[in-house]
Amino acid sequence: MPARNSRKIYYENGFYHVYNRGVEKRPIFEDQQDISVFLSYLKEYLSYRDDNLLLHKIGSGELTSKEKRDCVNRIQLNNFFNEISLLCYGLMPNHFHFLLRQEQERSMDILMNSLGTRYTMYFNKKYKRVGSLYQGVYKAVEVSSEEYLLYLSKYIHYQTLVINYPSSFEEYLGRRKTDWVNTDIILSYFSKANDANSYEAFVKGVDFEGLSLVKDLVLED
Fold it and tell me: Residue 97's domain spans which residues?
């Protein structure tokens, strides 16, 4: 029987909660380097890439052999700048959560397969292991209401605050600017002038009923 939420229905302009965790619930982030590498891969996939500029550099004859290889490798990577908006992310020791919107029907699937394969290769090489890193294929749940959209963002950020793990919450507070994280959609529901109605108050406020709305839909044994 397929794992819960492993079968996906793909829509253009669809919002999704995407997540996965380590096989046998083992850690997928052992140290800060692992976190940095994972986020650097996301940045490469989601940031704007000027292929014409890279091709010009490759043909200019001004690059070292290593610089040329780096440019070639960048061009060969999938790029989702105009295809996927990442609204939120949260990393935990043995799993991760994304809230994203895909513009094209299969963009999310290509991104997640590319990211999963690439990070597994890095992780296995570093820790001298073989085999799967994740507990099956990534899971995805369509976000079908505004309520679910908002509480999902809260759920993702609230979890990481509790154990002080990386997330996009700093972007939502305006303390960090990251071009490949789109905060506009969710922040449009909150006040910038009234602290009581701010996004920060929403995330930090205790609302177990709202959080359980998300948790009951996605978590597995």
Answer: 14-218
Q: CA–CA distance from 72 to each of 7, 40, 55, 66, 199 (Å)?
A: 35, 17, 8, 10, 41
The mean pLDDT of the chain is 90
- Strands (E) across 34-158 are located at 84-92, 95-102, 139-142
Beta bridge partners of 92: 95
Which tens digits make up the pLDDT trace of 144-178?
899 999 999 999 999 899 899 999 999 999 999 99
CA distances from 2 to 6, 138, 207 (A): 7, 12, 32
Is 1's pLDDT higher than 50?
no
CATH number at residue 169: 3.30.70.1290
Cα–Cα distance measured from residue 205 to residue 202, given in angstroms and rounded to the nearest whole number = 5
Other beta carbons within 10 angstroms of residue 70's beta carbon come to 15
If one counts the domains in the chain, the total is 1
